[in-house]
From TrEMBL:
Domain ABC transporter: 4-232
Pfam families, alphabetized: ABC_tran (PF00005)
Protein's name in the database: ABC transporter ATP-binding protein
Cited Gene3D superfamilies: P-loop containing nucleotide triphosphate hydrolases
Family label: Belongs to the ABC transporter superfamily.
InterPro entries: AAA+_ATPase, ABC_transporter-like_ATP-bd, ABC_transporter-like_CS, P-loop_NTPase
PROSITE patterns noted in UniProt: ABC_TRANSPORTER_1 (PS00211), ABC_TRANSPORTER_2 (PS50893)
GO molecular function, one term: ATP hydrolysis activity
Keyword Transport: yes
Organism: Desulforamulus aquiferis
Keywords associated with the record: ATP-binding, Nucleotide-binding, Transport
The UniProt record lists the keyword Nucleotide-binding: yes
Length: 317
């Protein structure tokens, strides 16, 4: 079953900008990350899904209900990127106000407020005014507001942008816990290392158009191998290496030659088209007289894949 389904969802401003023809399918119980350069249309898409913008055309469903069904919003949490809350309210007052917007009962509020404050690490600061909070604390109280209704679908727009490493880890743990409870989390973030850690699927949007959706681990353009080796004339032999579909992309000396040593140690990175090229690569290194001490397979990072997609004009067409 899908948590989010869109069909040619479009929002333009006088026929320009925004996003066009977005067709998404986000399964329930997953963590989905939306990537794109500034101005690509990410925030426009999220604002349509949470009801802050009306689509120009197209259709969408959230948790099996059409976008026009406002009752479903009680099951949706949203943390906007550039939010600004009332400085004079205490953290607890702010949560009570948002709880009233979600139409939580007095019993639900009494139970839920201490729970979300504990989740975001603000139990001891709920009596302080929001204006006295640090940027990280304001980010966390915003997350607490989004968590109030125990949402089945949570939209987080740059949720860790103002947080220190400890705060980012806390948010990651919350996101993973929500997934383990069967909730769906939709992330919009520029911190690709954060998305790489938690996301099951990603979508890449460029110029208002969705150019990829799926498991980013399946779209790596190359397979990379880190090899620790030694031997005489290492660089010359690497240049003579004749293994199709493999290419040396970097080599660094990690231990210099000593008088008692016939050769220094090198750390070499070699790009292969397929993982299956690895045995042939190792055989080739040995054949040219190099000694192989360690082989560590690596895949492209999400950042590299993202940059390839947004810079390659041939993709998504």
């Amino acid at each position: 079953m899908l948590a989010i389904k869109t069909d040619q969802l479009t929002k333009t401003y006088s026929g320009e900008g925004g996003c066009r023809g977005i067709s998404l399918a986000v399964p329930r119980g997953t963590i989905f990350g939306l990537l794109g350069p500034n101005g690509a249309g990410k925030s426009t898409l999220v604002k349509m899904l949470v009801g802050l913008l009306h689509p120009t055309s197209g259709e969408a469903e959230l948790l099996g209900k059409p976008l026009t069904d406002i009752t479903i919003r009680q099951k949706i949490g949203f943390l906007p990127e550039n939010f600004k809350y009332h400085d004079w309210l205490t953290g607890e007052d702010l949560l009570r106000f948002h709880a009233s917007l979600y139409k939580l009962t007095t019993t639900e509020i009494k139970k839920r407020l201490p729970e979300v404050l504990a989740m975001v690490g603000l139990s001891g600061d709920s009596h302080k005014t929001v204006g006295s909070y640090s940027k990280g604390m304001q980010q966390r109280i915003g997350l607490a507001c989004a968590l109030l209704p125990e949402p089945d679908l949570l939209f987080l727009d740059e949720p860790t942008s103002a947080l220190d490493p400890i705060g980012r880890k806390m948010v990651r743990n919350i996101i993973v816990d929500l997934k383990n409870q069967g909730k769906t989390v939709f992330l919009n973030s520029h911190l690709l290392s954060e998305l790489e850690t938690v996301c099951d699927q990603i979508g890449i949007i460029r110029g208002g158009t969705l150019i990829f959706q799926g498991d980013w681990r399946e779209i790596s353009q190359s397979f990379r191998v880190k090899i620790i080796l030694a031997g005489q004339e290492v660089k010359d032999k690497l240049q003579r290496l004749d293994i199709r579909q493999c290419q040396v992309i970097a080599s660094n000396i990690i231990a210099k030659t000593h008088e008692s040593n016939e050769a220094g140690m090198y750390e070499v990175y070699i790009s292969c088209k397929e993982k299956s090229n690895t045995p042939e690569l190792i055989e080739g290194l040995i054949e040219v007289g190099l000694k192989v001490f360690e082989v560590v397979p690596e895949t492209d990072s999400l950042e590299n894949i993202f940059l390839q997609y947004v810079s390659d004009n041939s993709k998504g067409r």
